[in-house]
């Protein structure tokens, strides 16, 4: 008898689906809807949510595999997922390149190769392809999946260190984070100009590790008190003012401190102010859901949660649709109708894609759960229209007794 698979937490799927919707909106060039996403009113954005939840869900999925099936089996499962992400990364790049080629041939306007910053690939496809495959060439717009791959690949080492002490994992994570922020540690994203990865893995791993530790039970969120909620709320207000000042008001109230504050809120290294903003926001959300769990119910959250359950395929489609949406704005303008078409149509396609993925994953052709399949009564034999069966053959025919399910 196999162990029952633990039920999924609809809250995790809901927030992951919400992050995917925000990522789609924010990655669409010229999208006014991006003005209403969290990045405009705080320091962290959907990327922090995505990586934190990736760590949390990895602890529940891969961490349990190591404990249940052994280290080698857990290592194999992680390797399988990393390979899946690698193929998705290369496939996404090829699809976007194909869209760019078609758009440049069909439409007048911007050169989408230059707009995306992948001129190097089209100028030197041979050399660039080799470095793309080895992750030595990580173009902008294609940097989240390589980060995710490296974080997953680190899970076996985290498991081994945690067997000594979970505190050892946290300590190593802290050293890497400080090295990234203060020491400039990073990986090379392009050997021609020496730029580093936009999502610095030495810095972003801290969110993954905290999420993993929370999912593995290494630590818990402190109980909410009025004082803690007040402190977190005040910091969120401060970050909202800071974000609006730096991004929209060209310095504003904090103009004199701009050179100090900007590095501390930088996205590439998940600056300390940015990291603390995410933790404060997460703390308030967790406290709110503990006080009012009915805010997220399985039925009410399902339209968004289903996208979170199929996050990889929805993410890939969202990235492609974001680029197509930018082309639509270039050709049709940025009026109300194009915005409604791009945003509502795009989100609708993401939802439909997730529903389709759920249907395929259910394999209704095996279980007979497909809507189009007509029920067939068990052990029902229709009268034959041909000549009667000879008596000896009929004597050999027996119906097995129906077993109870």
Automatic annotation (TrEMBL):
Q: Which domain of life is it from?
A: Bacteria
Any keyword Membrane? yes
Q: Which UniProt keywords apply?
A: Membrane, Transmembrane, Transmembrane helix
Q: Where are the transmembrane segments?
A: 12-29, 49-67, 88-107, 141-161, 168-187, 202-221, 233-255, 275-292, 312-329, 335-354
Q: Which organism is it from?
A: Inquilinus limosus
One matching Pfam family is OpgC_C
- Any keyword Membrane? yes
What name appears for this protein in its UniProt entry?
A: OpgC domain-containing protein
């Amino acid at each position: 008898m196999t162990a029952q698979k633990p039920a999924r937490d609809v809250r995790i799927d809901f927030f992951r689906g919400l992050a995917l919707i925000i990522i789609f909106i924010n990655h669409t060039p010229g999208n006014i809807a991006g003005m209403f996403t969290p990045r405009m009113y705080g320091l962290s954005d959907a990327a922090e949510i995505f990586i934190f939840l990736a760590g949390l869900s990895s602890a529940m999925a891969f961490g349990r595999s190591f404990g249940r099936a052994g280290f080698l089996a857990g290592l194999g499962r992680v390797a399988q997922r990393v390979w899946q992400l690698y193929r998705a990364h290369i496939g996404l790049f090829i699809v976007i390149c194909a869209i760019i080629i078609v758009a440049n041939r069909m439409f007048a306007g911007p050169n989408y190769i230059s707009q995306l910053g992948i001129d190097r690939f089209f100028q030197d496809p041979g050399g660039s392809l080799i470095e793309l495959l080895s992750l030595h060439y990580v173009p902008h717009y294609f940097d989240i999946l390589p980060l995710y791959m490296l974080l997953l690949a680190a899970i076996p080492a985290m498991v081994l260190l945690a067997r000594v002490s979970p505190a050892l994992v946290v300590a190593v994570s802290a050293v890497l984070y400080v090295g990234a922020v203060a020491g400039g540690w990073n990986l090379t994203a392009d050997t021609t100009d020496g730029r580093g990865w936009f999502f610095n893995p030495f810095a972003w791993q801290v969110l993954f590790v905290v999420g993993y530790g929370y999912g593995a039970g290494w630590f818990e969120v402190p109980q909410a008190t009025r004082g803690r909620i007040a402190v977190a709320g005040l910091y969120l207000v401060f970050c909202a003012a800071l974000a609006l000042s730096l991004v929209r008001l060209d310095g504003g109230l904090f103009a004199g401190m701009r050179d100090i504050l900007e590095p501390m809120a930088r996205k590439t290294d998940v600056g300390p102010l940015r990291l603390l903003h995410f933790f404060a926001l997460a703390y308030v959300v967790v406290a709110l859901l503990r006080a009012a769990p009915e805010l997220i119910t399985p039925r009410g959250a399902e339209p968004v949660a289903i996208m979170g359950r199929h996050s990889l395929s929805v993410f890939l489609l969202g990235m492609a649709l974001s680029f197509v949406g930018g082309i639509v704005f270039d050709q049709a303008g940025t009026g109300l109708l194009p915005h409604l078409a791009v945003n509502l149509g795009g989100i609708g396609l993401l939802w439909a894609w997730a529903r389709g993925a759920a249907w395929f994953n259910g394999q209704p052709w095996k279980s007979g759960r497909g809507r189009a399949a007509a029920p067939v009564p068990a052990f029902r034999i229709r009268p034959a229209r041909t000549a009667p069966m000879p008596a000896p053959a009929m004597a050999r025919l027996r119906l097995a007794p129906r077993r109870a399910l």
